[in-house]
Amino acid sequence: MNQIQLLISHQLIARLTMTRSFFILSCALFGMWCSKVNAQESALTRLDSIAFLEGAKEKNALLIDVRTKTEFKQGHLKGAKQVDFLQPEKFESFFKRKDTLEPVYLYCRSGNRSQKAAKYLESIGFKKIYDLKGGYMGLQRK
Length: 142
Fold this sequence. Notes:
By secondary structure, this protein is of the alpha/beta class.
């Protein structure tokens, strides 16, 4: 190898090393960013009946039954406020006036509507949303 080839070879190795270092650094930084994005906890937690009932006693907690008035009249949890998820304008209006940092405990008949309601609340900035697994029917079976 002559000196020119040797010089070009060293320059090529230096560039490859820099490129590799840049690539590794980029991957590391991107990985840290991704882990931070993934580490952001969901505001929604699904709870079993014992944890749900205990948590709903928390000071400032909102206990919300998202079923219809008819369903609510057939039976509900003591202290629950009925806010029908199937009436979007009323539902949205109710929660627009609430503190998004206060815990919200949601339930419906089977857990389907309350889960949808929870996702909506999360989308508008609520931070502590608890959904009853199995809904009111699940409580009645126990």
